[in-house]
From TrEMBL, chain A:
Stretches of the chain forming a coiled coil according to its record: none
GO biological process: transmembrane transport
Name under which the protein is recorded: Sugar ABC transporter permease
Keywords: Cell membrane, Membrane, Transmembrane, Transmembrane helix, Transport
Localization, UniProt: Cell membrane
Organism listed in the record: Thalassospira lohafexi
Amino acid sequence: MADPAQGVLQRSVENDAIQKTGRRRWRPQWTARMALIPAMTITIVCFYGFIIWTFVISLTRSRLLPVYKFTGFDQYVRLFANERWWTSMQNLAIHGFLFIGGCMVFGYLLAILIDRRVKAEGMYRTIFMLPLSMSFIVTGVIWQWVMNPGLGLQEAVRALGWDSFEFNWIVRPDRAIYTLAIAGIWQQVGLCMALFLAGLRNIDPNIWKASRVDGIPVWRVYLHIITPMLRTVFFTVFILMSAIVMKAFDLVVALTGGGPGFSSDLPARFVVDHILNRQELGLGAAGAFVLLCTVIAVISPYIYFELKKERGGRGH
Amino acid sequence: MKKFSTAAVCAAFLSVGVSAGAIHAQTAEVLHWWTSGSEQAALAEVRKAFEAKGGTWVDTPIAGGSNARAAAVNRMLGGDPAAVFQFSIGQQLRELADQGLLANVGKVADEENWDEKLPPLIVKAAKYDGNYIAAPINIHGENWMFYNKAVLEDAGIDVPTSWDDFIAAAEKLKAAGVTPIGLGGQPWQERIMFNSVLLGVGGREFYADLYSTLDDDLLESDTMHQVFETFAALKPFVDESSPGRNWNEATNMVIKGDAAFQFMGDWAKGEIIAAGIEPGTTVGCAFAPAVDTAYIMTVDAFAFSAMDGEDATPAQEKMAQVMLEPDVQIAFNMKKGSIPARLDVPSDSFDSCAQTAIKTLQDKKTHLVSTGLFGVPSAVSGAIDDSISNFWNSADMSPKEGQEQFHEAISYAK
């Protein structure tokens, strides 16, 4: 699976190399290239190599072991006829939208609140960051208990006397997918807050002074001045969170197990399940490859657009 | 194969403490996924017997069936196989045999006459090219119905013997405020219940024909439609928190009397024993309602890696022999909650549920196989689980639609 963060990282390494060679023109460029060889080898073999291998396997009838008897695009035909696959792709879209959107919105709001110089800022920061120290598995288990209708929140509120209270999303096939976003946002919002807060603290205080002189209301300063200035932070958060969405596997395993039925399944779980549990190596590989293509199709225009803009900006 | 070995070698490096090629005559490394208390106690009986015969047992437990299976395969491909490894018998194992990765224990099997002593369906699944590639150690049954006797008595109902009776009884229980069915809403548990309904409504011949042929006519038949209707009729008898619940939690609902029935394999007896109850006393066991008597079997088995060549090493042969020894079969299975794979082992020391099972299996017509482990190819097995679970959890799907998507899922998977 493509890890977009990798690309960003690589680019900055390249930039560093260019900057170095630029400063010391006498040093031949090949030393920099030599230094990159290990990283490049790993990237080429482990990354592109295995992508190609996955594609090759997806063209075979492999079950438990890889066999190289090619059957054309049979596995893709089977994949696209599979209702569970479509459910999981649809879920990926829903989860991705809610999770990334939710993390950004809530993370940014929290950062702004803390940036307004609240008392005991350190305490709030710690509280919001704390869930991040837990793995997705632990997060999933905690929320599974909280959202279990016979055990968690619903039961607790009913015990207090509000008998008609309902919060049973986790057992409802049409709602289970939203519980993933709730648990996911709860865990990751702290990280987003920290990134946004760092961005906010980097804003030149003079901007605030100027806006105060002009008498602009605070919310407008945030909306029309600060937010556009934080474009790169938004970009970073987006990339980080998309990577988490694409590889979301452990959260769904721990929280809903893909259920009820397969109503909250995600593609990564579909792929792992078929390769490891069902001995459907070929079908799993086809799923992985389609997932990769989808990710590239969705994310690359955005990355391309942002990077182009950034480079263009630096040129001036 | 070669390309795959890179990953396999990495996996081999991770398995610390195992030196490649260090195979002494009587040492056998045993890779398995039995990590829970009762499972370990059961396996310890085999180990004791193996060591008493002069063997050295190297224990490699790996939690989780699929993890353990993956590790066993990776180690084999990486050239550092575990001599004996737990695996499901059936098509996947044959695929390993196709690649020449397995040794056969045909010599021991001939000496001990396994062909006569094991159920024929298991014999078929454990053989490749006429030779045994695995030693089946036990039989679990999947069409059990556990029930809380006190709850049934309070509601004034008898143990139902047909699905119509069951539905009538469940209505009564529900009216009395008891959850009729304690169900763990995970696909495999829903499938166990479905297969009990299938067997109960269609009968054992229909079950056997359906899963051995996966025939389109059978899948489209009226009998199948009736099966889906009966299964759908059970939906209201499950409590709200069912989805995602583990099987042992559901068993505890029955033990405590919160639920009246559970459809589960006989490993549920382990939970019942752990609660201090002798199975068959306050928590009763019966076969799920059915038109005729049958036993849906699933099997735990150990396979043997090819160490050098196709023939098993002396340690592997000794292991195979020990595993099917009558005394070991009794000691092991009493702790595991299953029944012996050998049908000629005396049954008197087992609990009443196991005795019923052993007696039932004396009639070969009752032998059926589970779709979970070795009844059908694993791709089909997965498709069955998916479509059953989808049907069970979709409130607005009609039995007809359920039947159609079941049919479709199977035809794409086979």
